[in-house]
Amino acid sequence: MIIPKDDLMKKYIPLIAVLVLFGSASSLAKAVPLVIDFEDVITPSYGYTSKVDTKSNDFIFSNPLPYGKGVISDPVSACSPACASNGTNYLYGQSGLYNMTSEQGLMFDLISFDVAELQPAHTSNLTSIEIVGNYLAGGSVSYIFNLDGIVDGPSGLEDFESIILSNSFLGLGSVTFTANNDYFALDNLVVEVITVSEPAMPLLFLSGLIFVGMMRRKAVLAAS
Ligand SMILES: [Ca+2]
Ligand SMILES: [Ca+2]
Ligand SMILES: [Ca+2]
Question: Which CATH number fits domain 29-196: 3.10.180.10, 3.40.190.120, 3.10.450.50, 2.60.120.1350?
Fold first, then answer.
């Protein structure tokens, strides 16, 4: 029996379409959770770094100021009076901005982070920090957080506060942190890095096989 060419196409095209669509759907974005805690930054014996770019957990934090930015590991030897403390390394910066990006340029969601005033009784007091999320697709979202004014160095009171952001800080390409005044400290930035998996190769291979089979059958029918 000779099956007309048009009927063959009608028979196989929907099946191929379903397989290709399913293969594409398997290229789904995946959110990988990550905590950027600055524990992977090595500091000198005097207890702090001073770098334009600080790298931690595959993220870069850039601060264009010529001084007053980096990571503090020892708030007692690095500062007088003692700087904010949470018992771990943290990022510090002067007023002005810190720009946060993924080292590989990946899209990310910013979920939460810890923030503190760096020092008590400084020449001017930090009262708020503005967080601006720049969407990878364009546009931005901003949020201003008013700090509690509490910072007394190691022990004593809790220096850091945790900020949990709204669902607006999703699909970002970069985030800037701007203190309204004076030095501030950041730590434990909880992010989700968006990665896209490869298409399901077995399914694409199968749809390729069906396509080749269809072509061969057409050739056989045409020859008969
Ligand atoms: Ca830390
Ligand atoms: Ca505080
Ligand atoms: Ca304290």
Answer: 2.60.120.1350
